[in-house]
Amino acid sequence: MFSQMVGETALIIGLVSFLGLLVQKKGFPFVIEGTIKAIVGYVILQFGAYLAIEQLSRLTVLLERAFNVSGIVPNNEMIAGISQWYYGQTIVMIMFTGLIVHILIARFSPYKFIFLTGHHILYMASLMAIIMVGSGMVLWVQVLVGGVVLALCMTFFPAICQPMMRKVIPDQNVAIAHFGSIGYVIAGYLGKAVASKKPSEKKWSEKTVSSLSFFTNMNVTITLFMLSFFIFVGVFAGMDILSEQSGSRNVILYAVMQSVKFTAGIYIIIIGVRMVLTEVLTAFKGITDKLVPGAIPAMDCPVIFPYAPAAAVMGFAASLAGGFVSMGILIGFNMAIVLPAIIAHFFSGGASGVFGYVMGGVRGAIVGAFAHGMLITFLSLNLMPVMNQVGYTQTTFSDSDFSIVGLLLFWLLELVF
Rg of the chain over CA atoms, in angstroms? Predict the structure, then answer.
């Protein structure tokens, strides 16, 4: 039951809201209302994410068919699912230990972040279990070491992003809880490095934005981008591949509808984010005052998309381009091929685009997210030898923090044991 609850971020969000409102001694109806609204808000966010992921999955199939390639598929969900089948007990105990240590760190240290993205806790605990079981340590040592490392990850990664998060959301004390943090920070610094310092370019940018106001509507921009992408893949690969996926439907109408559904998914995400933030921040006052003074809620990466939606779209496109360039490099050097993890490029690439944008404008968003796309490709490739040793031969984790933590922990255990 515990592992299932931790995997359900909506329930964690609801529990946080419930405790926060309870500690504030709000009336019972107010507590129930706030708890349910927080849960519903996150479920709305999830529905949007599922709708977007469905279209991204279709696009992944098209890309594989279009380029006629197969190789390593970075996919957090796949790894976590397989890991729970084999190491379920270890994963649950690592999560339980990690959460306790994480709360203690927040209570007694200057790092007050409370990591609320349940599925990423589950993914990181799965990584810990995979490596710990492979090390040959006894169970209680696996759980202790894995739990402490998990707790440190839940504290450290929101902390390194927080200076830039204050620029993304300056009016709310919110952190980001998503294990792509190293990629975001690198994207932000690269964005700052390439930022234009010429006033004339800034004025030109403002003039351009004004003249292209048609494209400043987020829904229009996302729909046109995805439509262009679907058609590009169809033309590049041959429209017969797109026809095969669309079935009896006209391929152009099919591409239009997939693009619109993807845009609807993003819009739903934004609505859910706003609803969750309203309820969680209200409830967090009670946690701040009573349980963990100064606590900062750390939430999933889509929480930043509403603050720079165009940058998130640019980040997705640039990160995906980085993934394709990296795949081309691997093919050119006759190395193992890492297929672009489209879901990771969308969520983590989009967040990298936002970080790059707040630090360096449009140029920063593009350069930072492109570098992010290359980074997660080569990090996934470097993690594969570790995954191979524990029986995972065709899949690995997709986001930057998983690869870096996995490699460091594996090397450390190799030295010690």
Answer: 22
The residue among 163, 402, 187, 188 whose CA lies nearest residue 296 is 163
Per DSSP, 175 falls in state E
The dihedral of CA 35, 38, 44, 46: what is its sign?
Answer: negative
Backbone angles phi, psi at 297, to 5 degrees: -70, 130
Question: At residue 217, what is the residue type?
Answer: N
Burial class (CB in 10 A: 0-12, 13-18, 19+), 71: middle
Q: pTM for the whole thing?
A: 0.79
One digit per residue, the tens of pLDDT, for the chain of length 417 reads 555 555 566 777 787 788 778 877 778 888 888 888 888 887 887 788 778 777 777 776 776 666 666 667 787 877 776 776 777 778 878 888 888 899 899 999 999 999 988 788 888 988 998 888 767 778 888 889 999 999 999 999 999 999 999 999 987 889 999 999 999 999 999 999 998 665 544 433 444 444 444 444 667 767 877 787 777 776 766 667 667 777 777 778 888 888 888 888 878 877 876 777 677 767 766 666 677 888 899 998 988 988 888 888 889 889 999 998 998 898 888 888 887 887 889 899 999 999 999 999 999 999 999 999 999 999 999 998 888 776 766 778 999 999 999 999 999 888 876
Sheet (strand 175-176) strand order: 113-115, 296-299, 175-176
